[in-house]
Design goal:
The protein has about 150 residues and is α+β, with helices and mostly antiparallel strands. It folds into two domains: about 110 residues, 3-Layer(aba) Sandwich (Rossmann fold); about 35 residues, no CATH class. Helix content is about 30%, strand content about 30%. The protein contains four helices and seven strands; from the N terminus they run βββαβαβαββα. The strands form three sheets. Strands 1-2-3 form a three-stranded antiparallel sheet, with no helix packed on it. A hairpin with a 2-residue loop joins strand 2 and strand 3. The termini are far apart. The mean pLDDT is about 80.
Length: about 150
């Protein structure tokens, strides 16, 4: 998964300590074969590596959906696109609910639910980006939110 970040060609997790219940987890990634500790990465790269780590822990028995609440905040455009490409590849096995304000995320979504406040009430607009009409479940959600 780490290969989705340009320039990185692998990684390892290392547990340090005698007691497995009380040890340190070190994430080491490789750039052209040279080890780099996660502490020396930029904020967006750290976040991306952390998301890959969390997702890889669930790769053995994937969840039916994941919720990312503005996980892309520290990303530049390039890493936002990389994250979305990775999630698109994984979306055949699971669903992703992503809260984001970035165009690179919104443009890759299958369905967008926009929520705004109008006259002290929440209003939702559901837009299907794949050209299909909203399904029954989406219509029910829309009805409840309005």
């Amino acid at each position: 998964m780490i290969k989705h970040i340009k320039g990185f060609d692998g990684g390892h997790l290392l547990l340090k300590g005698e007691d497995p219940d009380n040890c340190e987890l070190h994430i080491i990634i490789y750039n052209n074969g040279k080890p780099i500790y996660i502490d020396s990465l930029a904020g967006g790269e750290k976040t991306l590596v952390s998301l890959f780590f969390l997702y890889s822990m669930n790769a053995i028995e994937p969840l039916s959906f994941y919720i990312f609440d503005e996980a892309d905040t520290a990303f530049d455009k390039v890493n936002t696109i990389r994250m979305m490409e990775f999630l698109r590849e994984q979306s055949s096995n699971t669903q992703f609910i992503i809260v984001s304000h970035k165009d690179q995320v919104i443009s890759k979504a299958d369905t967008i639910i926009g929520v705004s406040r109008v006259d002290n009430n929440s209003k939702a607009v559901i837009i299907s980006m794949n050209g299909k009409d909203e399904n029954k479940e989406e219509a029910q959600i829309k009805q409840k939110l309005n």
